[in-house]
Task: inverse folding
């Protein structure tokens, strides 16, 4: 409750101060002809030459590229210069709005195109944002000419009327001079509103055409969310690796020592009473069972062999522990990122678990290969089929799809009734 109360107090203070500051006629006049009015006037005055230069350069390059397209050389030179000039004039216009009006127009996010000029050219030719900027530079001269004429005529009329009024007063025509003075004062009062109207129209056009569109903002937001999700997935995987190391180096070693001590006591202390020896034997068996369960938990968190030796060795361990024959083919010459390796391992692990529990299969085959920047996984079994992500019975395929989707991968399941079942996953390597 403290934050909202403070904000309310601050707003009330601002309202009271604003009302107090404008309590006198002189304060209202001072605000009317304050520095922002003169900055808006400079904005209008500088906008005309920039707009005319932009439309001249962009239009000239467009005409040259089209008219002399038969030379091939003209388009190859003219089109890159055209889109480069659009970028330059757009940046100049943004600086003008920021300098004189305090309006910050956010730049349009542009996808990376590397150093290839041809790729950058085709990217700009397909970009809607670039053509929106071209549209602004085409209509900007009309806004600038109309605004320049309106503002300059208004200020000139004010100065001319004031000068004539002074001259008429000097020659003795006081009545006519007074009328011209009133006219000059009226125009002087109206000019700031004219300037504000012209600049407001310019700002609306600039924000609509030079700034990012709704699609650009959504695309940037999606990219930000994708990066955030990748960071979360990577952090979760790193945390699993840390827990695995802590359990392996700490708890698991202590349990192993306890089981060994109990085993030695069971083997050597044979002269103890039978109830005591039974307790020691039971404790020994329980410690071995707990140690096995802990190893399974550690292996489920993040197997150490995956970090140390890679995907091939980790999947070989999965295939060896399966309760049915598994053929494994791994063709990955270069290791992928640790997060993607973990996802691939758990996809195969979950698929083998599902086969063991539900498929009633006699054998399975796992194929892992890397093609470019994608990692392809295929798990094939000769079971009864009928598997689907939305099926009941605890198949776990929905969780498998979520794992693949966490790294922007794709999952395909082909499991007709009667089998066979084919699970394919495509993962990005980075």
Result:
């Amino acid at each position: 409750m403290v934050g909202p109360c403070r904000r309310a107090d601050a707003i009330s203070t601002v309202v009271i101060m604003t009302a107090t500051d404008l309590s006198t006629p002189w304060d209202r006049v001072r605000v009317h002809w304050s520095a922002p009015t003169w900055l808006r006037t400079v904005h209008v005055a500088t906008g005309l030459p920039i707009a005319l230069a932009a439309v001249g350069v962009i239009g000239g390059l467009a005409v040259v590229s089209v008219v002399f397209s038969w030379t091939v050389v003209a388009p190859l030179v003219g089109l890159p210069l055209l889109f480069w000039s659009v970028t330059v004039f757009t940046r100049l216009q943004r600086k003008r709005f920021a300098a004189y009006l305090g309006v910050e127009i956010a730049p349009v996010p542009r996808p990376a195109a590397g150093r290839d000029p041809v790729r950058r050219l085709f990217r700009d030719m397909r970009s809607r944002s670039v053509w929106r900027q071209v549209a602004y530079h085409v209509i900007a001269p009309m806004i600038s000419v109309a605004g320049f004429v309106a503002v300059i005529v208004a200020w000139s009329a004010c100065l001319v009327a004031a000068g004539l009024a002074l001259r008429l007063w000097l020659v003795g025509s006081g009545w006519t001079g007074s009328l011209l003075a009133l006219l000059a004062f009226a125009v002087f009062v109206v000019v700031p509103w004219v300037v504000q109207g012209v600049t407001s129209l310019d700002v609306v056009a600039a924000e609509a055409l030079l700034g990012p569109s709704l699609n650009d903002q959504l695309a940037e937001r999606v990219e930000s969310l994708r990066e955030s999700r990748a960071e979360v997935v990577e952090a979760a995987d790193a945390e699993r690796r840390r827990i695995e190391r802590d359990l392996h180096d700490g708890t698991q070693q202590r349990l192993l020592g306890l089981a060994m001590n109990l085993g030695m006591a069971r083997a050597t202390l044979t002269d103890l009473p039978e109830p005591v020896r039974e307790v020691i034997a039971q404790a020994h068996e329980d410690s071995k069972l707990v140690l096995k369960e802990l190893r399974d938990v550690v292996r489920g968190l993040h197997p150490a062999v995956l970090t140390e030796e890679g995907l091939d060795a980790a999947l070989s361990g999965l295939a060896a522990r399966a309760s049915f024959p598994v053929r494994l083919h791994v063709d990955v010459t270069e290791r992928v990122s640790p997060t993607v390796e973990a996802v691939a391992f758990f996809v195969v692990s979950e698929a083998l678990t599902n086969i063991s529990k539900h498929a009633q299969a006699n054998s399975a085959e796992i194929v892992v290969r890397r093609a470019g920047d994608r990692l392809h996984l295929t798990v094939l079994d000769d079971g009864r089929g009928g598997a689907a992500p939305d099926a009941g019975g605890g198949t776990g395929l929905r969780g498998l799809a979520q794992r693949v989707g966490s790294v922007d991968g794709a999952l395909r399941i082909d499991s007709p009734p009667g089998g066979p079942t084919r699970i394919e996953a495509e993962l990005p390597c980075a």
Notes: The radius of gyration is 38 Å. The CA atoms of residues 409 and 427 lie 4 Å apart.
